Amino acid sequence: MRRDHWQREIAKLDPDTDYEQISRIVAQHEFPWDSQQALSFALFRTYAVPSIGRLLYDTGQFTEDVQRRHDDTALLLEDIADKGMESREGRAGIRRMNQMHGSYDISNDDMLYVLSTFVVSPIRWIEAYGWRQGTEAERLAAVRYYQRLGRLMGIKGIPDTYQAFAELMDSYERRTYVFDRKARAVADSTLDLFVTFYPRPLRRQMRRFAIALLDDHLRETFGYDRPSPLMSRLAHGSLRLRGRLIRHFPARRRPSLLKNTHRIRSYPNGYLIEHLGTFPETMPDLPEHPSVATAAG
Please, which residues bridge with residue 272 across strands? Predict the structure, then answer.
């Protein structure tokens, strides 16, 4: 397949109506690894908002069972994107997220901020490290995708443009980022999980590598040490080099899904979408006829 195969496919689509298909092509064919890393860092940055970081800490799930919470979040978001928001699996995933969020006191502002990170972080990551620059159609498709997802989640005041999403995210971080020991504990736990994806001799360096990728405001909010100039150049430079190398690869024929990687470990025998996530005592009962998701791994 020609390297520009998927770009030509995207050019045939309308981002205002075909936003799910364009988003699938971007995330599963054009930039699968970049998209996965960017969404992981997007979630990581939300911990620095004290109301979010403290809530995640107080549930105990993101410090005591972080692998399962990582897997649940990844699988829910991926199934919704892969199957489509209007599919049975997609609606089951959205219903599951709404059940969880509805069981906690989460402000609309926090929900809107998290939504903005899902729009902005992948686009900025691809701009910095991708094998090519994203297109205006891909950017608009991302906006339309998360506008629809946000409406299905009951979020109010959703921006209408990428620039508005970016301004919302940046301004919210300027207003809210402040050190919180509970949020730092959640961040530490997440980094501890991240390094387990690599061979043991590399784990200490990979932790430093990840911290070096954080922007100064985020790193300082968590209280992490400033990386050395050498580590910073190595971290950012290696990702840019990867992008230049990937540019010479052929187009990906088969979709790349996170559920098929070694990073998802909690469900070796498969899972039910309705069983993912947390279940506080106040949560409504599960539906009588849950849909079965494909086996992880």
Answer: 292
C-beta neighbour count of 150 within 10 angstroms: 21
Q: Which pLDDT belongs to residue 281? A: 60
SS3 content of the chain, % helix, strand, coil (to 5): 65, 0, 35
Contacts of 15 (CB under 8 A, 6+ apart): 22, 137, 138, 140, 141, 144
129-182 pLDDT tens trace: 999 999 999 999 999 999 999 999 999 999 999 999 999 999 999 999 999 999
Amino acid in position 210: A
Residue 272 has phi, psi (to 5 degrees) of -105, 130
What's the whole-model pTM score? 0.91
Cβ contacts of 38 within 8 Å, gap of 6 or more: 121, 122, 124, 125, 126
Token pair 């736990």 is found at 189
pLDDT digits (tens, 9 = 90+) for 104-119: 989 999 999 999 999 9
Measure Cα distances from 252 to 7, 74, 296 in Å.
12, 21, 21
User: What pLDDT, in 10s, does the model give residues 84-139?
Assistant: 999 999 999 999 999 999 989 899 999 999 999 999 999 999 999 999 999 999 99
Give me the phi and psi of 105, to 5 degrees please. Answer: -90, 85
| Single-letter residue type at 279 | F
- DSSP structure class, residue 177: -
Residue 97: both structure tokens together: 């997220």
Assigned token pair, 229: 């100039």
Distance separating alpha carbons of residues 49 and 47, to the nearest angstrom: 5
